[in-house]
Amino acid sequence: MESLTPKQIVAELDKHIVGQTAAKKAVAVAIRNRWRRQQLPEDLRKDITPKNIILIGPTGVGKTEIARRLAQLMSAPFVKVEATKFTEVGYVGRDVDSMIRDLTEAAIGIVKQKQREYVKEKAHERVTERLLDLLVPSPKNSQWEPEGETEEQEKRQRTREKFRTMLLAGELEDRMVELNLEQKSSPVQIFSNMGMENMDVDLQNMFEKMMPKNQQPRQISIRDARKTILEQETENLIDRSLVNEEAVNLVENHGILFLDEIDKVCGPQSGHGPDVSRQGVQRDLLPIVEGTTVNTKYGAVRTDHILFIAAGAFHVSKPSDLMPELQGRFPIRVELTDLTKADFHRILTEPKHALTKQYAELLRTEGVELEFTPDGIEALADLAFELNRSTQNIGARRLHTILEKVVEEYSYEGPDLVEKQIVIDGPMVREKIGAIIQREDLSKYIL
Question: 357: domain range?
């Protein structure tokens, strides 16, 4: 699989995330190593395991954003899961195997999309033929004389060719035809998700196949019928067994799993009963990260070469509180730094879709021109930094809170504003936020 170079990956991440160069470099190298491994001989490739990463840093500094942007960059299966979703097997809550099933579903989507492109031309040909069948249906009564039958067939063929010309020219898009559409019944939950998710899905699929398909004729336009038939024909042309095989291979060799909030399952073992959401989850995670086989409805998936990227704030706990065996499977640790005043200034101005640009574009839909002056941006950055330092540090998310308070009035009055030119400068920002900051009891709840 073709891959971006580490520098290209970092350059793409730089468009959306300010700073955190060490973390960007670590994930860029890890992803490039996926491609490098594929270039090696088969016998050597088996022995090279991915170097899993833990991103450590306070909330709001870009850990999850790195994962989100990576997902957009990668053509490989990528899934982000929250560690807090899982509980020990046997208790109510998701079991850790489900994240491998989610990753396989993502791979199925990627492979199916490639197959759709591959069969696209043939599917379009089939769509045209089926639309012609709807426009020029075959006669139901075929009890003709041989010579009459030939004449009727020739006449029907000429009519069909005329319709084909009109159809390809787009002259029949609004013409109504009758098409049988399948009515899908709503799925029934067979089991609760107590470690039996895969069985649940398999049984639901089995029941769906057993139930008779409910088809109802509907009058729809050629334009809408083309979309429906194209989807049906594309699905019919796709080789499902090939898709499943390729998807499993894609997960095993290129899958990337981002495990967020890993610190929430980290900590000492509870002495007050079963610790189903900490030590228990770590014990269940261990074989997945070390390498095991997970059964999915598309086949058995080995996790030995899946890349795991974990992230956590580690406010209360620390990485060394993880089980030693689990720590050993995350050899690369990268610390993300706190955001400075200069970082906040860059966040407001540099990214491709910076917050100030987002607010300006949102209000432009109402005809309001919102302009942020340099001293206004400076004031926003300064206030965000000071509030993070004096109250709870929530990183870049503080900017959302402050900006929302600053433009709240204009967002509310937007459609009815007489003055459509709004300038957000330093004095205005400090006037709107200053009164709240001075009252400490208010600032804790509002900002």
Answer: 341-437
SS (H, E, C) the chain: CCCCCHHHHHHHHHCCCCCCHHHHHHHHHHHHHHHHHHCCCHHHHCCCCCCCEEEECCCCCCHHHHHHHHHHHCCCCEEEEEHHHECCCCCCCECCHHHHHHHHHHHHHHHHHHHHHHHHHHHHHHHHHHHHHHHCCCCCCCCCCHHHHHHHHHHHHHHHHHHHHHHHCCCCCCCEEEEEEEECCCCCCCCCCCCCHHHHHHHHHHHHHHCCCEEEEEEEEHHHHHHHHHHHHHHHHCCHHHHHHHHHHHHHHHCEEEEECHHHHCCCCCCCCCCCCCHHHHHHHHHHHHCCEEEECCEEEECCCCEEEEEECCCCCCHHHCCHHHHHCCCEEEECCCCCHHHHHHHHHCCCCCHHHHHHHHHHCCCCEEEECHHHHHHHHHHHHHHHHHCCCCCCHHHHHHHHHHHHHHHHHHHHCCCCEEEECHHHHHHHHHHHHHCHHHHHHHC
Amino acid at 63: K
Q: At what angle do helices 21-38 and 6-14 cross, to 10 degrees?
A: 140
Order the strands of the 256-260 sheet from edge to edge: 78-82, 256-260, 307-312, 53-56, 332-335
Place of tokens 């591959």: 118
Whether pLDDT at 268 is above 60: no
| Residues 370 and 35: beta-carbon distance below 8 Å | no
Both tokens assigned to 179: 């098409």
Same-domain check for residues 103 and 250: yes
Same domain, 236 and 141: yes
pLDDT tens for 351-405 read 888 889 999 999 899 888 889 999 999 999 998 888 888 888 888 888 988 999 8
Distance CA 359, CA 353 (A): 10
CATH of the domain at 361: 1.10.8.60
Confirm whether pTM is higher than 0.90.
no
Dist. CA 132–CA 136, nearest whole Å: 6
Q: Residues 184-212, buried b or exposed e (16+ Cβ, 10 A)?
A: eeeeeeeeeeebebbebbeeeeeeeeeee
* CATH assignment of the domain containing 83: 3.40.50.300
- Report yes or no on 302 lying in a domain: yes
Query: Would you state the pLDDT for residue 246?
Result: 92
**Contact of 62 with 19, CB cutoff 8 Å:** yes
- The CA distances from residue 154 to 143, 151, 359, in Å, are 16, 5, 65
CB 406 within 8 A of CB 432: yes
